[in-house]
Amino acid sequence: MDFLFIVGIAQAFFFALLLGRKKDKSVADKILLVWLIFIGLHLLGFYWDYSGFSSQHPHLLGFSWFMPIAEGPFLWIYAAALLSGAKRFNPWWLIHFVPFVLLNVSIYDFYLSPPEEKAQFAATLWENPPWQAVLGNFLTLYSGPVYVLFLLVRLKRFRNGLRDFFSSTERINLLWLQRLTWGLGGIWAVVLGTYAYCRIADTRLPDNNNYYIFIAVSLFVLFLGYHGLKYENILVKYASPDVASDEAATAERYKKSGLKPTDEKVLLDQIKSLLVEQELYLEQNLTLDDLAKKLDNPRHYISQAIGSEEGLTFYSLVNQLRVEAAKEKLVSDEFAHFSLLGIGLDSGFNSKASFNRVFKEYAGISPSEHRERHQKIHQQ
Questions:
Q1: Most buried of the four, 165, 214, 235, 354, by CB within 10 Å?
Q2: Residue 69 contacts by C-beta under 8 Å, 6 or more apart in sequence?
Q3: What is the pTM of this model?
Q4: SS3 letters across the chain
Q5: How far apart are CA 101 and CA 98, in angstroms?
Q6: Residue 207 pLDDT greater than 70, yes or no
Q7: Residue 345 pLDDT more than 80?
Q8: Which residues of 223-232 are buried (b: 16+ CB within 10 A; e: fewer)?
Q9: What's the half-sphere exposure (Cβ side, CA atoms, 13 Å) at 11?
Q10: C-alpha span between 5 and 19 (Å, rounded)
Q11: More confident residue, 125 or 66
Q12: Share of the chain above pLDDT 70, in %
């Protein structure tokens, strides 16, 4: 299994290098870059202990002992940055790393000890473990699963909000995070499983269970890299197509369609007329199939007309109409007594989160900022 550990270490640093070369890195990309380096160092620290290299060089002992505690926080802040589309790093995210930092600070005297003393202490560590080891072991066992469970709940809520905003980028991010979360959850399943087995069987697995745990970590790195490369915008940057190539791709996409180009504009006018006149866009659960039935046209004809003539998806068009309606209501005296949530719901959105996210995507500012700007103009 030494080969698997070495491959895991090399892959972690390779994926970090690949991400480091990505152009126009987002805040989430930068967090993932640091996390990949951290995972690589974590694996390297284990391999040094496992192979006996640390025993030959005792000054290396201890640097990776508390690293598992930081894996959950890295997952959480990466997800927070990716789902929110954060433009800046939020310093409050660092609070998640407080236990990891405090435990490392609390054993600073061990880190500064001579190599011989470090080796002697490490050899008798589990005979009479200090409070740092007990707390560190507890957090290693349970902090990761807690972060995984909380993130799964957050992703479920985010997925529900996607009914109002079907951005391809958000779809990719959601699927990527779901798989990343389940992958990390698999590691903690091994952690808890080996711990439970040892307690029940009153035994100890090779290298204090770490052997099996780090096999899981190495496999996780390979899993992470496979999906990171599969969704190219994660580890590498999509090339930005120019308008001409984009038009060519659209034309190729609908090349075999039965809907003639001359009929696309006619159908688009019918779509817009139906959406606006009957205010269908205000229906929170409106789908492409619903509109296709009302127009008595195949759903792919609806998508083609909107895509070819407007360069949009069905949901993008619907969201544009919803945002325009919300803009008017936010500055209307008739809706002055409405809360932001009330206006969002009345404009077709199904939650405050989706209303804020979609409004900012199309208007460039939040609903509250839009209302405040209007009020300031009228107060002058």
A1: 214
A2: 99, 100, 103, 136, 139, 140, 143
A3: 0.62
A4: CHHHHHHHHHHHHHHHHHHHCCCCCCHHHHHHHHHHHHHHHHHHHHHHHHHCHHHHCHHHCCCCCCCHHHHHHHHHHHHHHHHHCCCCCCHHHHHHHHHHHHHHHHCHHHHCCCHHHHHHHHHCCCCCCCHHHHHHHHHHHHHHHHHHHHHHHHHHHHHHHHHHCCCHHHHHHHHHHHHHHHHHHHHHHHHHHHHHHHHHHCCCCCCCCHHHHHHHHHHHHHHHHHHHHHCHHHHCCCCCCCHHHHHHHHHHHCCCCCCCHHHHHHHHHHHHHHHHHCCHHHCCCCCHHHHHHHHCCCHHHHHHHHHHHHCCCHHHHHHHHHHHHHHHHHCCHHHCCCCHHHHHHHCCCCCHHHHHHHHHHHHCCCHHHHHHHHHHHHHC
A5: 5
A6: no
A7: yes
A8: bbbebbeebe
A9: 19
A10: 21
A11: 66
A12: 84
Distance between CA atoms of residues 282 and 278, nearest Å: 9
Cα–Cα nearest to 269, from 299, 296, 290, 295? 295
Q: Six-digit token pair at 301?
A: 């004809």
Burial string for 159-184 (b: 16+ CB within 10 Å, else e) reads eebebbbebeebeebbebbbbbbebb
Instruction: Give the Cβ contact number of residue 65 at 10 Å.
Output: 21
Question: Can you give the pLDDT at residue 246?
Answer: 41
State residue 245's pLDDT score: 41
Tokens of 24: 């126009």
Is the distance from CB of 22 to CB of 237 less than 8 angstroms?
A: yes
Residue type, 121: F
User: Rounded to the nearest 5°, which phi and psi values hold at 111?
Assistant: -60, -30
Tokens of 140: 């290693």
Query: What is the structure's pLDDT at 333?
Result: 87
Closest-CA residue to 209 (of 46, 358, 64) = 46
Q: Determine the average pLDDT of the residues in 309-322.
A: 81
Do 145 and 192 contact (CB within 8 A), yes or no?
yes
Per-residue pLDDT at 34: 94
Return d(Cα 49, Cα 71) in angstroms, integer. 19
